[in-house]
Structures are given as C-alpha cells and as structure tokens.
Amino acid sequence: MRRLARWAGRIGVAGLALATPLTLAAEPYAWPIPDWMPAPPVPDDNPMSAAKVELGRHLFYDARLSADGTVACVSCHVQDRAFTDGRAVPIGINGTPGIRNAPGLANVGYLPRLTWANPHMTSLEFQALMPLFGDNPDEMGNNGQEAALFARLAADPYYQTAFPAAFPDRPAPDLFTVTRALAAFQRSLISVNSPYDRFKYAGEDDALSEAAKRGEQLFFDHRFECYHCHSGIHFTDNLQTSRSAFAETGFHNTGLYNTDGAGAYPADNTGLMELTGDPADMGKFRTPSLRNVALTAPYFHDGSAETLADVLDHYRAGGRRIATGPHAGNGAQSPLRDGMIIGNTATEAEAADIIAFLESLTDDSFLTNPAYADPWPADHPAVADRILP
Ligand code: HEC
Ligand code: HEC
Q1: How sure is the predictor about 324, in pLDDT bands with cuts at 50, 70 and 90?
Q2: Which of 99, 113, 134, 195 is the most interior residue, by most CB within 10 Å?
Q3: CB–CB of 356/209 below 8 Å?
Q4: What confidence score (pLDDT) does residue 6 get?
Q5: What Cα–Cα distance (Å) separates residue 218 from each residue in 229, 346, 352?
Q6: Looking at residue 26, what is its pLDDT?
Q7: How many angstroms does the Cα of residue 250 sit away from the middle of ligand 1?
Q8: Is 248 found in the same domain as 151?
Q9: Do both 25 and 156 map to the same domain?
Q10: Which of 77, 136, 374 to mutate to test the pocket of ligand 1 (most atoms within 8 A of CB)?
Q11: Which helix H or strand E contains 322, and what residues bound it?
C-alpha cells in the first residue's frame, strides 16, 4: 500500500498528491444511461471523451500490459461474466494465485471505495496501479519494469495515434495517460437494462416473472433485511453519483468467519481491519452490488460460496457454520457479526423466489454490448499470447 501511494504521487492522483490540471481532448462523450439514472462522478482531471474511452478499451484487452505478454485485465474480468473470471480467486502472471475473488466491473464508476476492503482505494485511476504494479499478489508483474511497459505500448501503431487523440497535451503512454484511459473506459461500463429495471423504472409489468416479483417483496422485507445493505439503485450501500452530496461507504461483517478459541481470525479474512487497524473492523467487507450477480459465481470476498443457494443458506443460518474444510468455523457465533445478519426462516420456495429476483438483475445488453468488447483482431500481438480464464 505504501509503495502504491508513492506511485500515486507520480501519476498525480487527486487527494494523494498534486493534481496537475491538463487540457484533455474534449470530444463529447454520451453516457449510455436512461433519464432516471444520474451519471457516475468524474474527476476534474480526467474528463470523459470518446477517444479516451476507446483507448482505455484497447488497453483493457491488451496483454502487453503485463511483463510477459500473457495477462490482460480481461484475464480476470470477462465481459460475458459481467467482468468476473468464474474462479474463487484469480490467477495472475506466472500462474500466481490471487487472494481475493475478482469483482465484476458493472457500474464500477459509482463505487466510492474500490476493492473488497480497502478504505483508501478511492479512484479508478489509483486502482489501476494495483494490477499493473502490485506484487502481493503479482497480477501483471510490472513492478520495476515501467520503462519497458511504456516502450512496448509506444511502439504500437494503433497507440501512436490513439494516445495523441485521447491526450493531445500529453500524447505518450505513461503512468498518467494509461491509468486515466483505463479509468475512463471502466466508468463507461454501465449496466441498467435488466428485466428488473424495465419492470421497475420503465413500467414494463411483464418484464418480470411472478416468482421474481415475489422474490422482490421478500428481498425488501424485514424478515430478510437484504435491502439494508444491498440498497439503492445498485443494491449496495456503496454509492456515489454525480448528484450525491456525500459518498455512502458500507462495510459489514456478515458472519462468514469467527475467531478460533485463542482469538485468532483466519488469515486473509480480516477485511477492513487489515488497513484500519481497528479490531471492530475485523471481518468487515464492502457490500457488493447485486447487478448481474447470477453470472458472478463463486461468491464472497474469497469465492467461498459456490451458488446463490449457498449464499442464501448462509443468511438463513445468520452466519456460516461449516464443520470441515478450508472455510470451517462458526461465523454465526462471531461477536462482530452485523446486527442485520439475524438469520431467517426462508422456506425452499421463498429461497427460490429470492433467487428468481436476483436472476432478474442480469442485463443481457451489458454482457453483449460491442462498446465493451475486445477490439483487437485475433492474431494481433496484443492478444496472441493472452490467457483467458
Ligand atoms: C490476476 C487477476 C486480475 C487482473 C489481471 C486484473 N484484476 Fe482487477 N481485480 C482482481 C481482483 C482479485 C480484485 C479484487 C482485489 C481486492 O479486493 O483486494 C480486482 C479488483 C478490481 C477493481 C475494483 C472493482 C471493485 O468492485 O471494487 C477494478 C476497477 C479492477 N480490478 C480493474 C482492473 C483493471 C483495469 C485491470 C487491468 C489493468 C485489472 N483489474 C486486472 C483481479 C485482477
Ligand atoms: C449487514 C449487511 C448485509 C445484509 C443484511 C445482507 N447482505 Fe448480502 N452481502 C453483504 C456483504 C458485506 C457481502 C460481502 C461479504 C463478503 O464477501 O465477505 C454480501 C454478499 C452477498 C452476496 C454475494 C455477492 C458477490 O458478488 O459475491 C449475495 C448474493 C448477497 N450478499 C445477497 C444477499 C441477500 C439475498 C440478503 C438477504 C437475505 C443479503 N445479502 C443481506 C452485506 C449484507
């Protein structure tokens, strides 16, 4: 983290160090969003432009962003899985296993805090440093090899015109431009056209099945309390739009784990406490959005639940009880468990209805939108050696 903060100083991320005002390409960018939805906030030093978003898309899919040309962002964030990878934890450069489950990127521009449990990760520009240069775990492996990375990109004919178009005043690939183009592309990843949206916001009564309508009632019922944390337009209490007066940032301990008798908490599951140092933050993680959740299995910060039915079993029991295996323990007895994780008496039929509701949050147009798809031809060096999950 400390090393990332030093990098942040060098790219001039606002809030962490000097923010250099620059005049950037002012081509208009049209948000793909309906009237009822405010746009995500955009930092003053990284205005959206069509050229920048398109450059960011090429970078997102380009494995030359990794030290050995095998790992691109798409290696862990695949469009038709709502930009997750289907694994419990991802695999980075040289087969390095990750620590946390790869989150989806739908509507990621609305999240005021990025990643599962880092309260300091406040911008997409800053976050991009983590896969590019982070080494715990190694994802793209460029730590100490920045010059080679930017030289590879500068040699590409597409980038020789795309960087100047996106950044007329600073036309070369460098930390500033690469992180900003990636951020602009990710801010453009908007998913608000699920059957539930059409039912709820566009008045299409038959867009939802009867089971999903019953599931919606249960989701918003006090018996289940789901909506307390999975609240608002993206079903999370982590939200900031261009119209928000303040950012909502919810982290909760949902009773997945507990300390052993001696007071130790399972490694890699300490959550928010890892960075705040506050024992009350033990086991707290950011509430994930539930949009497209039917496609983002396995679930939770460590990918420890295989299916939505497993997730509902966990909430039914008011915390997780597992007798043996890597996730063994009795999270339901954790004194740190959030007061809203109360357990419930859902019948099998009610659980099926809640799952039907969660499935109605799948937005097919997002998963197939060509504006978010791989732009490179199959035999291009950007993708020739690229590993996909
Ligand atoms: C090796 C797999 C891997 C690669 C490659 C990778 N990511 Fe990720 N990504 C992850 C994981 C795992 C997390 C969650 C990390 C955490 O919470 O500690 C994550 C989190 C994110 C987040 C935060 C999402 C959220 O909901 O908070 C963004 C944004 C993101 N990645 C963008 C990118 C971009 C851009 C690239 C390419 C430059 C990239 N990722 C490459 C695995 C990967
Ligand atoms: C106290 C706040 C809270 C309540 C109440 C709550 N959740 Fe969650 N939910 C979370 C948090 C936090 C996580 C992430 C936990 C983790 O990974 O450690 C999560 C994870 C999930 C996931 C997995 C998503 C993913 O991408 O991995 C699903 C699905 C889910 N919740 C559905 C529900 C449903 C359905 C209910 C009601 C029965 C509910 N939640 C109630 C806070 C809450």
Answers
A1: confident
A2: 113
A3: yes
A4: 52
A5: 14, 9, 11
A6: 54
A7: 19
A8: no
A9: yes
A10: 77
A11: strand 321-322
